[in-house]
VOC family protein
Amino acid sequence: MPVLTTHRLGEPCWVDFMSNDVAASRDFYTALFGWEPRVSDDEQYGGYITFHKDGHNVAGLGGAMGGSDAPDAWMTYLLVEDSEATEASVVAAGGQVFAPTMTVGDQGRLAVVADPGGAVIGLWQAAEHRGYELAEEAGSVVWHELNARDFDAQLGFYTDTFGWQPAVLSDTEDFRYVTFGPSPDSPVGGVYDAAAVLPAGMPSSWLVYFGVDDVDASAARVIELGGAVVREPWDSEFGRFCQVTDPTGGFFVLSSVMAD
């Protein structure tokens, strides 16, 4: 895949992992995906780590905020033109602001919000940092998925607030799913009606898929590195997948990618 230099407004542009054990998370993901960790200036950026593959940004890692009881988790960020204005739009559309807009050095501005179904999502107003530079290949993000408890309300929220133009993949009682992206032929993510499968009390959430050459071998490697397999590898018309967690409980999906 070519190196990405721009992202479309309203769509995913970055992912990072907030960990209560940064060293353990760094070691796990570098061993699993072959990423190179680069530590930022500790005073200005709090020791934030940017993972690189073949010299290009692919993801980030930071320490969980002190006193936070939130579980370790991956977060997807949507690219916005004006973070503070988008905050206001989020609230007007029934969402919440968890962390108001803050300036991150010369890299950009970020905020953390939640949609009406409680799914947490980041906002990124880019400056020097434009987002991940590789996608849809081994060792990079290949998909973003919202597991929605309130499918209609949440889909309407993203459509109204971020300008999505969703395409229906399936609309049956057993499986409701839409994709979003520049066109139905090139989607970058999806929204799944998960109301019937989410455990009681579990809010909606965003899920990140990472590409690998061999799902089964990568799942075995996850276990070797102290993680766990939540759902054994399975095949679908879209590829082979496996749901896993890292050693601190961070949930993500391994996804097969086509070899070049």
